[in-house]
Amino acid sequence: MTLLHPDRLFPVDPTTRAIARSLFATVETAPIVSPHGHTDPRWWGENPAFGDPASLLVQPDHYVLRMLVSQGVTYAELGIGPGAEPDPRKVWRTFAAQYHLFRGTPSRLWLDHALSEVFGIHARLSPETADAAYDAIDAALKTEAFRPRALYERFGIEVIATTDSALDDLAQHRAARDGWTGRVIPTYRPDAVVDPEFEGFAANLDRLGAITGCDTATWAGYLEAHRLRRACFIEMGATATDHGHPTARTADLAQSDAAALFDRVRGGTCSADDAELFRAQMLTEHARMSCEDGLVMQLHAGVHRNHNTAVFRAIGRDRGFDIPTQGAFVDALKPLLNAVGMDPRLRLILFTLDEDTYARELAPLAGVWPCLRLGPPWWFHDSFEGMRRFRQLATETAGFANTAGFNDDTRALLSIPARHDVARRVDCAFLAELVTSHRLDEDEAFAIAPQLAHGLARAVYNL
Amino acid sequence: MTLLHPDRLFPVDPTTRAIARSLFATVETAPIVSPHGHTDPRWWGENPAFGDPASLLVQPDHYVLRMLVSQGVTYAELGIGPGAEPDPRKVWRTFAAQYHLFRGTPSRLWLDHALSEVFGIHARLSPETADAAYDAIDAALKTEAFRPRALYERFGIEVIATTDSALDDLAQHRAARDGWTGRVIPTYRPDAVVDPEFEGFAANLDRLGAITGCDTATWAGYLEAHRLRRACFIEMGATATDHGHPTARTADLAQSDAAALFDRVRGGTCSADDAELFRAQMLTEHARMSCEDGLVMQLHAGVHRNHNTAVFRAIGRDRGFDIPTQGAFVDALKPLLNAVGMDPRLRLILFTLDEDTYARELAPLAGVWPCLRLGPPWWFHDSFEGMRRFRQLATETAGFANTAGFNDDTRALLSIPARHDVARRVDCAFLAELVTSHRLDEDEAFAIAPQLAHGLARAVYNL
Amino acid sequence: MTLLHPDRLFPVDPTTRAIARSLFATVETAPIVSPHGHTDPRWWGENPAFGDPASLLVQPDHYVLRMLVSQGVTYAELGIGPGAEPDPRKVWRTFAAQYHLFRGTPSRLWLDHALSEVFGIHARLSPETADAAYDAIDAALKTEAFRPRALYERFGIEVIATTDSALDDLAQHRAARDGWTGRVIPTYRPDAVVDPEFEGFAANLDRLGAITGCDTATWAGYLEAHRLRRACFIEMGATATDHGHPTARTADLAQSDAAALFDRVRGGTCSADDAELFRAQMLTEHARMSCEDGLVMQLHAGVHRNHNTAVFRAIGRDRGFDIPTQGAFVDALKPLLNAVGMDPRLRLILFTLDEDTYARELAPLAGVWPCLRLGPPWWFHDSFEGMRRFRQLATETAGFANTAGFNDDTRALLSIPARHDVARRVDCAFLAELVTSHRLDEDEAFAIAPQLAHGLARAVYNL
Fold it and tell me: How far apart are the first and last CA of chain B?
């Protein structure tokens, strides 16, 4: 008995299930291509041992935190913030006691997969099994086989991208490259020096100047600093940038207007409108740079961060209180697209948390603009139902070739195989349904399955 | 032969259907917990005989009215308003002649259930069967067995909540409590004294003052009057309040600003913006009161009422011309949530008619804020497809425990068993699909089914 | 072996599939009623031979163009615009080489259907089969059997509506009527003389005046000109108007205000707000005219046309760069509906590209206003998944009778049988699922299937 059924997530109809199984057999053990994620570069550079089960599987996982908090568990009970429970075993027990809350959620699939496939634990987590699971995980984490680089090999990862501040020195990437055969590449994420509302924006610009030797007090120097930093990232293997913006708004101002806007923004006196306009302009500037240096752009827009002000003040970001907002891409992207959207050198991958935009906006946009690709279902939609809806809503208008393959997009290293496993299963199930409803020939499904599993990610991200 | 197939609404796959059947067998005859609805308190206080079939099943049912009107039947033909047809049998025949319009709608399921299970009528309604059905219903309604209290017993109702104006004296509830063993409880619905745009708002405030002995010309006295009225409702068994607002906007003004706003509102000179702000502020005030007195809050937001002005003027509210509007919860609820959203004494149940908000806003919000729960699919979405979409869209992010069980939300007493039957079937079908796609173990499905059928409603509403 | 499986698009469950098959057998060869489309009237008036395969199947099909462009094919390679490839065979080869892009899209279903059923080509299109397919099609197009009128007969078309400018002289319709037995009727599309932002609006008004003899410099004369033109269309068989507006906004100004607005609009000095208000007012004016002359109104709202400015400038409209926008109907339609929405002579068919509005707005509106009907899934949603979602989202609130049957809505004559085939299959599949989940009796499904296939279109459009 295992926590994982071999036919999980497959269609229930026997004919369709058999096709899904056959398709999945061709991709189940294929390499993991992970072009976008948030693993800690230190893991790859220093290859440290992980800590205890709670600090590995509970405390850093915002999906887990938010569900426990939603049912009245406090952050302190989870060992976080003021009055934090210091004993990781007690934190683990609190988690295990509430494991039933995850029924029907992707967290449950990922956690069961990690317990079962990574740690060999085959009893469902519960108050009764909590201590045994804790002991087994804790013991495993003390072994060499559970250090990051060993897990990279074991998981069959071919390449993994991290997401890194424009101000990062990439020392960990250098260490990983120099001391190891794994392929860990950075991604240029310039939010801290692009978003006037980012904490410490002015100081960040100073630091950007210091790092690059550019005069970041001028628009021209500021742009040049971005170019230089992008070049450093490319030198360390980067193939992509990532932009986390409140909205997808873009702008294409005359350069004199952009320079004047930069002066206002740089002076720290800009309005909220100016801040939004500056972010918008910078997306277009980065698109132009991408035409030159070949970095693939990713745009993650549409999240209200830190909805709970008190929690943010007490214990900071990424604690589960980020909430999606309504998406709007058609007018928002028009300036950028009309500026550089027909340039064959540009590739821009769009992500959304507003599924309404799949069929209404994103598939129609990506189904015609040659630079655009649709990123896979993001965050709350990185799930069985979310992935199914994505394929059902996007495929008829955008096809498969305008999608960008799968991103695990996670800081939870142990969930990476689980996430790719879920995506591959859901995609094979979808293809099988196309076959049994005679919307696709079987040979075509076999051609598409490896594309969705790894081929598109490799191609779209230039890996 | 019956109008109802025993496997209705179950999945068609034999394995899945068998599991759904087994799950449903455990809840089919479980007590009905009805924490939110609109039955007439007089029925419970006075236990009157119902009138004729038309006045029971056609004229008060806005779902039925709207469908008939949409295909050209006039209100007058249905016995409503100017020139109303006086003969209920003729109204019934008009209804029966158009019964085909309800194919594929929840009304059809509810009506067939009432005809078949409540009245023992097993021929589909049609022009040919109209008179026989009329006669059978009419005869039944003259018997003691079809009075409200007898139906309460027959339907297996454990508790039923009505929805009552803050100005209501609850005499019918008192009569029911004193003269009968059924549990009928009121719900505090203060719209008439909270919404400055409600008909007779100023007079309503005066009456609120007269009832409570508070000075409702002052902000402090006004709030105190609410507290006293809530206490009276609690004394009669209430466990919840209900708020029907055009939007979900909340506010958390400084008390001095709130008092100044109240003065403007009280003076009858407030703008539409002030009215919206006052409603917003009052949601937060009621949330604070709920922390004190324990009443569970319900928010029903997002309806454009009385879209047809002429029909509203001629025959009033609730005639079928209410239309959903776009929902927006993330910014709207932030003030209230940041004020009291982490208070363990608060519980706030959210309802929407904009299904786009399930996955984008409501499940993410309820999946982290401990005070929030998701109400079941409301009104137009109280249906097979609506309930399925709700589970598919909300479960992966909010789980089951952050949902509030089922509300029949009806003034149509005879449809109550049908509505709970539909909800239980759809939920068991959903659980069965989770099992056969191996997203949930079978024992877990059996643990969840009774929670969805009655357990969550009892727990979330403190019943 | 054929490109088309006889069970395509049917449910995979054997019981449900058998019912779907039986239902489909009753409508498969039923006449095609095509109440809204864009075939070229010249085809019917002059019955010309079609050109080569590329100019018939590739170049005019904006679905095909957009997918090819999205993957980097240029318009020039497709024989369009500056530097256009002159050899249609080379264009065809480019298309065939990219045929895999259409996997999972409705274009694939339509194209396979045309190749297989119309041309008898049974090998999947690919670089290897491109030339043989080209030759077969090219040869066929030179025969009498592939002229428009012969195809009309072969396809079993009972009636087909074109869409025609208010300024069109309908000479081709007259020629078709006088020289042939087919029923080809025009549709009054007044955008060019209603939308102040339409190219050449002022000149168009002058021409409208010249054609009708009305003084289109005055509001009264302008309205009268519309009445006269509508009468001419009716005389040529028209039963409907069609309105392509950026939004669904309507207005019901006092006539003096409308006249003043017309003066501003006519003078060419109107603002964007005035332009929108004028379009809004004209929807209500046309609704009033429809009450008088009986033309059914169609409203196609919510498209951002020509998102790519450079492509628009270089090669014009309808090249694939139209993108849907967010829909909003509730407030927008209120003025028109409150003016004439209860008039039994009015019928207004609503189309949307924002599927969110199906369940939230359109089904609730059409489920009560007697003048309203829901048009079938439009454009990007004229597809398997799109049609399924439409039925799943709209039926429970609007029923079947408030929908308007199927529109092929195409300028691609050869795809007409394919499109009706898809719609009939999807609808039969949906009905079969209602039957096996016991939401509908089997005899009722057999009553509904022909309504959806042709009955409703005939009735709703007064054909």
Answer: 38
Task: Tell me the pTM.
Answer: 0.97
Same domain membership, residue A350 and residue A216: yes
Instruction: Provide the H-helix boundaries in A88-214.
Output: 88-97, 106-113, 130-141, 148-154, 171-179, 191-194, 201-212
The answer on A334 and A435 residing in a single domain is yes
Give the position of tokens 């009753």.
C26
Phi, psi of C217 (to 5 degrees): -85, -10
Which two three-digit tokens encode residue C220? 């009264």
ipTM of predicted complex: 0.97
| Residue A143 pLDDT class (50, 70, 90 cuts) | very high
Separation CA B218–CA A398 (nearest Å):
60
Using alpha carbons only, give the angle A301, A307, A309 rounded to the nearest 5 degrees: 135
Here the tokens at position B165 are 């104006």
Alpha helices in A294-415 (DSSP H): 309-315, 330-340, 356-357, 363-366, 384-398
CB–CB contact B100 C447 (8 Å): yes
Looking at the complex, does the CB of residue B356 fall below 8 Å from at least one CB of chain C? yes
Window 62-121 of C: residues touching A by CB (8 A cutoff) are: 66-67, 69-72, 100-106, 108-109
One domain for residues B241 and B140: no
8 A C-beta contact, residue C95 and residue C112 = no
Tokens of C42: 């010249």
Distance from CA of A356 to the nearest CA of B (A): 7
- Sign, CA dihedral A70-A357-C395-C26, equals negative
| Tokens describing residue C294 | 């009986």
CATH code, domain with A265 = 3.20.20.140
CA–CA separation, B46 vs B7, rounded Å? Answer: 38
Inter-chain CB proximity C380 and A364 less than 8 Å? yes
pLDDT in tens, A24-59: 999 999 999 999 999 999 999 999 999 999 999 999
Give contacts of B3 with chain C, Cβ < 8 Å: none
Length of chain A: 463
* CATH code for the domain of A128: 1.10.2020.10
Task: Please provide the DSSP assignment of A220-266 as one string.
Answer: HHHHHHHHHHHHHHHHTT--EEEEEESS-------HHHHHHHHHHHH
Q: What pLDDT is attached to residue A267?
A: 87
Two tokens, residue B30? 């479980």
C-alpha to C-alpha distance for C321 and C75, rounded to whole angstroms: 12
Tell me the sheet residues that pair with C240: C296
For CA atoms A212, A213, A219, A223, the dihedral sign is negative
Give the span between the Cα atoms of B36 and B337, in whole angstroms: 23
- Whether residue A369 and residue C8 make contact (CB cut-off 8 A), yes or no, is no
Q: Is A18 exposed, middle or buried (0-12, 13-18, 19+ CB in 10 A)?
A: middle
Locus of tokens 């009264």? C220
**Angle in degrees, CA B120, B124, B127, rounded to 5:** 120
Digit-coded pLDDT (tens) for B109-129: 999 999 999 999 999 999 999
Q: Which residues of A touch B15 (CB under 8 A)?
A: 12
Per-residue pLDDT reduced to its tens digit, B236-264: 999 999 999 999 999 999 999 999 999 99
Task: Please tell me the distance from the alpha carbon of residue A463 to that of residue A181, in angstroms, as a whole number.
Answer: 16
B374 interfacial to chain A (CB closer than 8 Å): no
Q: For tokens 């008995």, name the residue.
A: A1
Give CA–CA dist B179/B44, Å, rounded: 10
CB contact under 8 A, B372 and A70: yes
Residue A8: inside a domain: no
The boundaries of the domain holding residue C80 are 50-146
Residue A98 tokens, joined: 């509430």
Q: Residue C403 falls within a domain, yes or no?
A: yes
B16 in reach of chain A (CB within 8 A) = yes
In a shared domain, residues B186 and B221: yes
For tokens 């109303």, the residue is B84
CB atoms under 10 Å from CB of C71, counted, come to 14
